[in-house]
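Open question from group meeting: does this chain pack into something compact, or does most of it stay loose? Before anyone orders reagents, we agreed to write out a predicted structure and look at it together. Recording both the input and the output here so the notebook holds the full record.
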Amino acid sequence: MTYREAYQTGKALLEEVPEGDLDARLLLEFACGTSRSDLLAHGEREVSQKERERYLEMVSRRKNRIPLQHITGQQDFMGMTFRVDGNVLIPRQDTEILVEEVLRDLHGGSRILDLCTGSGCILISLLKYSNECTGVGTDISGKALELARGNAAELIPEEAYQFLESDLFEKVEGKFDVLVSNPPYIASAVIEGLMPEVRDHEPRAALDGGEDGLCFYRKILRECPDHLFGGASVFFEIGCDQAEAVVGLMREAGFTEIRAVKDYAGLDRVVCGIWKGMEHV
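Structure tokens returned:
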């Protein structure tokens, strides 16, 4: 079997999977250790028996709607490669908008708190692209934190970060200059209607934001004042229909300079604001 024939086989097997032709190519490159140009430049080269078997096994898993990133065990985010598995949300391009907004506001030496850290992609990216900042990431899942610690160990200095198994602020000590979070924000009743890749393979605890999807925003905003310096910035990723509600919650909690930021598709994606201190509430 040639490289091009392998791709055509994979493409046919994945014809009912969204973007199946793209996934067929990406899995072939992963199985063979090749690059995007190989399909055009070296399509007639023979694929070894081992490569063929590995490729078809991965295509079979993808046909069963297992996420591509769970098959390869990795996902690119902010110019870095993160290890991922079924214990964490797969980092998405939308979340890069959140990181970019924080970086615009971030000062050297700031102390960052990342709640619901998952794979650690947000905190690690912020520490990677800033100067002398330090950070704490929390998650309720010990297995997620194992992955986050492994990602951090490969990408940033060990003195820059700490990961805590904590229900939001439960085990957090001290105060921070920046709080960032991509919390669960999907309304409970909506989850069953999600794509099977998300519904069946990503952790429910990282998706379910309660009856209206706003449960975690309320809890974070209620508890965060004890952990923020005056003038601290808070950044949330939100669902595309949640900007008005989250802006209202932040206003009620005493935040100022609140604004919503759109993603590249023109949808609301981030809400942020400034905590001035209790005297302003």
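Observations to bring back to the group:
The longest strand covers residues 228-237.
The CA atoms of residues 29 and 36 lie 7 Å apart.
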